[in-house]
Amino acid sequence: MPIIWTASASVRAEQVNCRLIIWGEPDGEDLLRGELIAEVSGRLPVLTASCQASVTQAELPTRERVA
Is 24 helix (H, G, I), strand (E, B) or coil? Predict the structure, then answer.
């Protein structure tokens, strides 16, 4: 079973440019992993959201936690 984390953000009445990237981890010797990118931009009440899902063999980026 995959482990899933969720994220949310409050949006103020000003210009917004947010990107959320979810990286999967390779399984065993198979170097393929999933990657999901969600982007939100615009200003309330009109926001644009786009999502892109892909499969890659690229290495995972360095992980940094933002509080």
Answer: coil
Taking phi over 0 as left and psi of -120 to 50 as alpha, with beta for the rest, 28 belongs to left
C-alpha closest to that of 19 among 34, 7, 28? 7
In single-letter form, the type of residue at position 15 comes to Q
| DSSP assignment of 7-22 | ------SS-EEEEEEE
Question: How far are the Cα atoms of 3, 12, 13, 18, 67 from residue 42, in angstroms, in the given order?
Answer: 31, 11, 10, 10, 24
DSSP secondary structure letter of residue 32: -
Q: What is the pLDDT of residues 5-31, one digit of tens each?
A: 676 777 778 898 988 888 888 877 888
Of 3 and 46, the one with more pLDDT? 46
